[in-house]
Amino acid sequence: MGHLITVATCSLNQWALDFEGNLERILESIRIAKQKGAKLRVGPELEITGYGCHDHFLEGDTYLHSWEVLASILQSEEAKDMILDIGMPVMHKTVKYNCRVIISDGRIVLIRPKMFLANDGNYRELRLFTPWMPKKVEEYYLPRMIQKITNQTTVPFGDAVISTLDTCIGCETCEELFTPDSPHINMGLDGVEIFTNSSGSHHELRKLHTRVELMKAATQKVGGVYLYANQQGCDGDRLYYDGCAMILVNGKIVAQGTQFSLNDVEVVTATIDLEDVRSYRSRMTSRGMQASRSEAYRREQVKISLSHPDMDSDIHLRPSRQREPFYHTPEEEIALGPACWLWDYLRRSKTAGYFLPLSGGIDSCATATIVASMCRLVVAASQAGNKQVLEDARRMAGECESYVPSDPREFANRIFYTCYMGTEHSSKETRQRAKDLASVIGSYHTDLDMDSVVVSIHSLFSFVTGKTPRYRVHGGTPAENLALQNIQARLRMLLAYLFAQMMPWVRSKQGALLVLGSANVDESLRGYLTKYDCSSADVNPIGAISKTDLTSFIGYARDAFDMPILGSFLDATPTAELEPITENYTQSDEVDMGMTYKELSQYGRLRKVEQCGPFSMFYKLVHEWGEKMRPTEVAAKVKRFFFYYSINRHKMTTLTPSYHAEAYSPDDNRFDLRPFLYNASWKWQFGKIDRAAAALESGSSHTKELVDINSQVD
C-alpha cells in the first residue's frame, strides 16, 4: 500500500511592510491549505515583510515586527497540527539573514538561512543579508516574546532538514534553485523526499520556462517532490512577482497556479504517493552509489505525519495526475502582467484612477489597451465574487456595496481619463484614432488644442531675447528645431498633471489621478524622448517593453479584446508630430533616430544581456549582418547607437518608474547601473572599430584588432 499525502504551496500578494495585511494573507493561505487536507504549507520568500522592503531590511524595526507577526502565527488556530514553512528576516549574532522558519504544531523546529543570495539584475541581497555556510548549524536564542509562546529557549539555526514520522523535508530559497550546485542535489542524496522552494521571483517576458525547466530537472535527476511558492503582485516598486506556484513529482508537474491574477491568496495543492518517489529512486543505480557516500545532514525530528490515517484506505482518493506546463504567449503576458501591476498600484495608492495623454500613436495606444485589460480583469474578478477586488472597485467608483462592475467600458469610464493634446502640427488621423480608441475602451476623453499656450511661450522667449527661433523646414538650425519641439512636449507634461489633479473635481468626484507614461524601452535606450515631457509620469506600464513586442501585443489585443480600431494603429507610421507637416516632409521616429526599432532591440540585448561594449557589439553584428551590409556600414550603425546612447544617458536618471518586463531595460534606478556622463566620442573604442572594419573590407582578416577579441578570455 502506498503512502498518500497532500501538500500545499501558495502565491501571496504581499506588500512591503504591510505587516497586518501580510499576516492575514498568510493565515488565509494556511486555512485554505488545511481545508484541502494538506499537512504541509509552503509560503513565499520573506512573506512576513514582503520581499521588496530593500533598505528597510537594514532597520531593527523590520526584524522586531517580523517576530511579532510570527508570534501571532504561532498562537493561531491555523498553526495547529500543521508544518508551516514561513519566510522572514532574522538577525543572528547581530548578522542579518534571509530565513525560512519551520513551524510544527505551534513550535519552531528550525530556522534555515539562505545560503546563496541573488545579487544581479534587480536583486541586491548582498547589500541586505549575509549568506550562510552549507551544513553548518548553530543554536539560536529566541526573543523572549517567542519563548513565552513556545516554551523554547533556543532552536537550531542553519542548514538542516526536517524528519517527520513518514518522510523528510528540505528547504531551498529562490536563487538556490538557479545555482550550479543547488542544495536539493545533496539533500536528495541524503534521503530528503520533499523539497520546498520559497521565492520572490519577478516577471520578465519569456522567463517562466527557465524556472519550470530548472524545477523539472531538479526532481528528474534526484527524484522527489518539489513545492514552489512565489509572491504574486506589485509590492511597492517596479517589479511584478508572477506567482505560478507549482508542485512537481519526479520531474513532472502535478499542479500549477496562475501566473497573473487579482487574487491576493492562491493555494495550490496536490495529493502524492511517496512510494512513487522511492520507486523512482530505486531505479537509479548511480544515485544509490553517490547517496551511500554523501555527507549526512543534521535532522530535526518532528512528531507529526503528513499522511492521514484514512487516506490510504479511501479508494476514491488518488494521486494528482501529471500535466503539461502552461505558458502564456508574450502578447498575453503583456496583456496580463502590466494590467495586474497597474491594479495593485492604483488600489494601494488610494487614488481615483489613471490619466493618460493619448496621442494617437501606438505607444499610448498600448498603454490604454493595458488599462482596458485591467478593467476586464477587474470585472471578471468582481463577477467571480472576489471580495477584495469588489471593495477596491467600489471605493474608486464612489459607489455603495451593491455596485458590482459588470462592463469593462462602464468601469473604465469611472477610473480612466484620456486626453488628446493637439497642436497645429497634429494630424486629423491621430486625433480621430485617439477619439475612436477612447470610445471603444470607455475612458472619459477630452480633446484640446494647446497652440495658444505654445505661442505664448514662443512670444515670451522672443520678447526677452529679441530672437525668434524657427523650425528646420522653415530654415531653422538644429538647436532651434529641437527647442521648439521640446516646448510642445514639456507643456503636455504640465497639462497632464493639471488635468490629472482637476478632472475628478470637474466630475464632482473625490481624489486625484495617477499620470501614465508611454515611452517604450527602445526609445529610452536611445534617449529618443524629451526630458520632462509625457515620458515623465507617475508610472509607465510599457517602459520596459520593446516596440516590436508592443506591436505584436496590439495585433493580439485587436482580436482577443474585439477592438478592430487597433488595426489602424498598426498601419500608422510612428511619429512625434512635433514639427510642421509639409508636402515634402512628415516627421518619422525611425528617420529621426537614425535606426530602426528592430535594430534598437538588438543593440539593447547585446549591450545589457550579452554585456557588449562598442567593439564587442561590432564584432557580433558584423557577422550577423554581414550578408546584407559592409563592415563599415555596421561600424557606422554601432557608433551611431553608442553616441546617442551616451549623450542621452542622463535622461535615465529621471525615467518614470516602469513595469520591469525586459532583460535589456536601461532603468538607471536599480537594474542598469552605469554612468550618466560619458565621453561621447568613445575615441579609443571607435578607433578600434574603424580599423577592424577597414581590415575586413580590404580582406585582411587576421589583423590584431580581430585576433584580440578572441583572446580576451585567456
From TrEMBL:
In the C-terminal section; belongs to the NAD synthetase family. It catalyses: deamido-NAD(+) + L-glutamine + ATP + H2O = L-glutamate + AMP + diphosphate + NAD(+) + H(+). The keyword Ligase applies. Gene3D superfamilies: Carbon-nitrogen hydrolase, HUPs. SUPFAM superfamilies: Adenine nucleotide alpha hydrolases-like (SSF52402), Carbon-nitrogen hydrolase (SSF56317). InterPro entries: C-N_Hydrolase, C-N_Hydrolase_sf, Gln-dep_NAD_synthase, NAD/GMP_synthase, NAD_synthase, Rossmann-like_a/b/a_fold. Residues 5-274 form the CN hydrolase domain. It is an enzyme of class 6 (ligase). Its EC number is 6.3.5.1. It comes from Phycomyces blakesleeanus. This is Glutamine-dependent NAD(+) synthetase. NCBIfam families: nadE. PANTHER family: GLUTAMINE-DEPENDENT NAD(+) SYNTHETASE, NH 3 /GLUTAMINE-DEPENDENT NAD + SYNTHETASE. Keywords: ATP-binding, Ligase, NAD, Nucleotide-binding. Pathway: Cofactor biosynthesis; NAD(+) biosynthesis; NAD(+) from deamido-NAD(+) (L-Gln route): step 1/1.
